[in-house]
Amino acid sequence: MSGSRLDPWVDSYASRANAMRASEIRALFAVAARPEVVSLAGGMPYVQALPLEMMAETAQRLLFERGSVALQYGSGQGDVTLREQILQVMAEVGISAHPDDIVVTTGSQMALDLVTRVFCDPGDVVLVEAPSYVGALGVFRAYECDVIHVAMDDEGLVPSALREAIASTRAAGKRIKLIYTIPSFHNPAGVCQGQARRTELLEIAQREGIAVLEDDPYGLLGFEGEPPRAIRAQDSDGVIYLGSFSKTIASGLRVGWAVAPHGVREKLVLANESAVLCPSNYTQLTVSEYLATQPWREQIKTFREVYRERRDALLESLQALMPEGTRWTIPAGGFYSWLTLPHGLDATAMLPRAVANLVAYVPGTGFYVDGQGRQNMRLSYCYPEPDRIREGVRRLAAVIEEELDLAATFGSHGSSGQLAGSSVPAPNLQ
Amino acid sequence: MHVLVLSGGLSAERDVSIRSGRRVAEALRIERPDWEVAEHDVDASLMTSLSLHRPDCIIPLLHGAAGEDGALRNVLESLGIPFVGSTAATSRLAFDKAITKQLAADAGVATPDGVALPQSIFRELGAAAVMDAVVARIGLPIVVKPTKGGSALGTSIVHSAADLPAAMVGAFAYGDVVLMEAYVTGTEVSVSVFERDGDLLALSAVEIVPDGELYDYASRYTAGTTEFFCPARLSEDAALAAQALALNVHVLLGLRDLSRTDMIIDAAGTAWFLEVNVAPGMTETSLFPQALQAAELGLGEVTAALVEGAVAR
Q: Which residues contact A404 (CB under 8 A, 6 or more apart)?
């Protein structure tokens, strides 16, 4: 006699769907969406800093003047005018390329998916930073890649650790397909690779014949000096570069791109057509119109100032309120700081208590595939106003104090792991 | 008839509650197309909404604190708005697993041996000594859970004393008092109870067979990860004992309209009371709707009758 599993397709799913389960952490993030909760969890850009009237004019003009094109299918590679404009954007980070080298995608997340689809068979190795972007880990897992974390320090990926990881992986008979890195204002670590470090990492990749997948959504959002030069600026053959308008214009438009050597690019175009036929013509042309008619560099400066003020609010509050033994990174750009709790505390186990105290963060375990990160959390300062950030840190400090008390009572045992499951926040989490 | 379904709130079961609320509201709209059925979160705008458009009846489908603990129902009672379900006072009793266990035990109901303790007592007396004493009394395995809250949040089964501190930390993350309860081996079942035309009816027990050891959050809300049998694979006597236990608890605690009692049936056929829910989940994978379906009763039909009963009270 068999019972009901309430899902007639349960025996039909692919094995990779096994991990797609409801999770306690997702349940807690659902509470974090309430206005009473200060969410330092989500990574939503502060699009309110964009002049929405101007965006409305841009969209209206587009529909009146080129509506029949904007609402039609486009090419799998993306609109050619937009690709030419993307060259101007990438010039800001030192990249020189040809419009034909670019494939426009539905956000750079789609580009990540396409590159992985083109490069990786199940079991192939992708080397990633420790920690790494949760959305990339999800893609690599979906293609059944073997993800191996490589240590970082305050300047990002550590070259000696990269060399060791390559050697030990190959010694184990595995094929390394990609080195995935976020060199500028890392998500979630909040650190930035220096130029010498970038060159050294690139030289290792070149010597070992491994493609570098450079993810650069935050490169133009630095708070000091000129934007860091992209790794792709040094090598057009060994680096696949991913860019995005999500943080420099608007994430809802879902326009990103990949720049790749011609052989890779041809495959990306075909893969793009297979996945979505073509990226949205409407949003591509909206971006194109915006870039052509609006002071986009000035707007990026506005975004930088907004995020710098919020970063400062976060860092000042952390400095003033965090219990002894707590450490955090000092981001020079981007959206995130990576916090390390005092010894013996577990950010995953602590999350229910934090949410009950009306503050949310993303536990560090979400940024690893191997269970690391229990002592860490990602704090986002991109969306809440500075006063809310200060209040959030105040609440978080109180929660950590309570957790220290609990650890003093029960010892440093961590949690029993009952918060396992997807720890990825939904993209629309504030 | 203007019916307002309250769901959401600020507890960790917010998402589950919203799904429960949506499902009940939809079922009610289909059952009573002439009724105005609205849904509302429990937030700062609720009181204004209630005063601007006072409903004839409210269905509180909040799970977790502020929904099941009686606080919201206290407010509804103060406002004089009829609502489906138990009173504020009895909800408060039923929400505390330690209190309901004690009341059940006092009335002669079988319930696993358990100890409920606040965090402060571990700090004051020394956690190791207290945990040793609990293990010595209850034995292993031990089920560790917060005394308040649902969906098995913060719950774990501990097989080794060395794992107990971590389980305690996990449970204290969800509440200030933790219940450590003897693990009873047997068939895990849940019996739903509701009132109709003045009678109290117990539906057939639903048997729960999760993929893992614990019927945890993921197994509750991921379709396909738990196998359910309704009616449960029990002897006739055991099935009747399960229903009798649920009815007994409902009456003993003075509950109203509906409840769902979770229990274990051991090899001897004894029904061991674990906990009772005054706002049982109503999602696609929840137990109350499954029991209704097995009895060929519609969620809309039963809810509509409960609404009419509440308004007539």
A: A323, A342, A345
Instruction: Inspect the interface and report whether the beta carbons of A408 and B123 lie closer than 8 Å.
Output: yes
Q: Are strands B142-146 and A239-244 parallel, antiparallel or unpaired?
A: unpaired
Min Cα–Cα distance to chain A from B9, Å: 8
A92 touches chain B (CB under 8 A): no
Q: What is the mean pLDDT of residues B138-147?
A: 96
Residue A355 covered by a domain: yes
DSSP string, A15-83: GGGGG----HHHHHHHHHTSTTSEE-S-----GGGS-HHHHHHHHHHHHHHHHHHHTS---SS--HHHH
For residue A246, give the amino acid letter.
S
Q: Is the ipTM of this complex over 0.95?
A: no
Q: Does A352 touch chain B (CB under 8 A)?
A: yes
| Residue A418 pLDDT class (50, 70, 90 cuts) | very low
Residues A400 and A381 in one domain: yes
Nearest CA to A314 among A381, A364, A377? A381
CA distance B159 to chain A (A): 12
Residue A395 has pLDDT above 60, yes or no: yes
Which A residues, 30 through 69, put their C-beta within 8 Å of a C-beta on chain B? Answer: 30-31, 34-37
Quick one: A350 and A370 in the same domain?
yes
Does the CB of A4 have a partner CB in chain B at under 8 Å?
yes
- Do β-strands A327-328 and A156-157 pair in parallel, antiparallel, or remain unpaired? unpaired
Is A385 found in the same domain as A280? no
Chain A residues 354-413 with a CB less than 8 Å from chain B? 355-356, 358, 405-411, 413
- The mean pLDDT value for B137-161 works out to 94
Q: Are A137 and A271 in the same domain? A: yes
Helices (H) and strands (E) in chain B, counts: 12, 13
A94-123 mean pLDDT: 98
pLDDT value at A220 more than 60: yes
pTM of the model: 0.93
DSSP 8-state assignment for residue A247: I
Q: Do A321 and A223 share a structural domain?
A: no
**Residue B57, strand partner residues:** B3
Q: Judge whether residue A189 has pLDDT over 70.
A: yes
Domains and CATH numbers, chain B: 2-85 (3.40.50.20), 94-110+185-298 (3.30.470.20), 114-182 (3.30.1490.20)
d(CA B245, CA B22): 30
> Among partner residues B10, B209, B223, which is closest to A6 by beta-carbon distance?
B223
The pLDDT value recorded for residue B175 is: 93
C-alpha–C-alpha distance, residues A306 and A277, integer Å? 37
| A142: in domain | yes
Nearest chain A residue to B168, by CA? A410
